[in-house]
Amino acid sequence: MTQNYQKTILACFCGYIVQAIVNNFVPLLFVTFQTEYAIPLSRITLLVTVNFCVQLLVDLLSAKFVDKIGYRVSIVVAHIFSAAGLLLLTVLPEIMNPFAGILLSVVVYAIGGGIIEVLISPIMESCPTDNKEKAMSLLHSFYCWGHVSVVLLSTLFFRFVGIENWRILAAVWAVVPILNGILFCKTPIAPLISGDEKGMRIGELFKNKVFWLLFVMMFCAGASEQAVSQWASAFAEQGLGVSKTIGDLAGPMSFAIMMGISRAVYGKIGDKIHLEHFMTASSLLCVVAYLLAALVPSAAVNLIGCGLVGLSVGIMWPGTFSKAAKSLRTGGTAMFAFLALAGDLGCSGGPTVVGMVSNAASGNMKTGILAGVVFPLIMTLCLLFGRERNKHALTQQATPQT
Description:
The chain is mainly α. The protein is built from 19 helices and no strands.
C-alpha cells in the first residue's frame, strides 16, 4: 500500500468520527435548548426523528446521484454540509425562530452525515488493503470511538468552561469535518469496480436473492444494535435507580466502548478468524446477551448483558458490508446505499419495537428488551442459511457433468 492510500484510509477513519459528531453532539444539548429557548421537550425530540429521516432519504437518493457526480465531489460536499450544519447551529437560533433555526441546522448536517454513511465504506473497500474485512471492521470502530470522544470531551467542556458556552464547542467540532474535507480533496480514491466491469443497476440488485439476504442481515444488524443502545440509559436508570448522568455512563457509553473493542479486535486479528464464523458466534452471543438483560432478576447481570450486546453486535454492520462487497463485486454504489438504508431502517425499527412492547407491558422495559431478541435470532438464521447456500453451490460446482 502506498503512503497516499494510507492517507485515504486515515480520512475514512476521520469520516466516521465526523458522523459520530453530527449524530451525538446535539442530543447532549437537548435540556439546554429546552431551558434557554423555552422549547418544549416534545418538539426537541422531533430533532432526532428529522435527523434520521433526512439520512434515510439521502441513503435512498445516493444510489442515483453519487455515480453521476463522483465519489470525491460527493464526500467533500458531505463534509461541507456537516461543518455548515454545526456552524449554523451557533447562528440561526439567534436570528430566527430558535426551534426553526435548530431544525434547519440539523437538516443541513444530516445531509452530510447521510452521504458520509453511504460513501465511507465503499471508499475504504476500494483501497488496496491486505485484508479488507479487517480494514472494514477497524473503520467502523472509529464511529464508536468518535461517539465516546464526543460525549466525554463535551462533558468536560461543559464542566470546566460552562454549558452556556456550547456555541464555542459547536464551532470547535465543526473544525473536524472542515479539515477532513480538505484531506479528501488531496487523497487518491480508487474506483470501486475495476476494469471494464459496470456496477449493477438498481433493478438488477432487486432481482438478486443474495442482495435481499444481505438487506435483511443489515436491517437486523442495525436493529440488534440500537434496540439496546437507544434504551441503555433508561434501562440503567430503571434497573439501578441512578441519575441521568450515571445512567448515560453505565448505559450508552459502556455499550459504545464494548462495540468499539469488538470492531478493533477483529480489525487487529481478523486475518486469523473466518469472518462468517465470527459473525455467527457473535450473533449467538447476542441472543444470550439479550436473554441475560431481559430474564435474569439482577440489575448488575442485566447491565452486563447490555455490555455483551455491544460486544456482540460490533461485527454485524461492518461484517455484512464486507460480505456484500465479496459476494456482489459489481454491486457498486447502489448496493452500499441500499444496505445503508436497510441498516438505518433497522436502527429505527429496533428501538421502536422495544418501546412499543415495553409500553404494552405497562412500562416493563425487560419485556421490551426480550422482544428485541428476534433481531439477533434472524441474523443467526440468515448467516446459517447463507452458509448452507454456499456449501450447496460448491457441491454443485464439484459435481462432474455427464
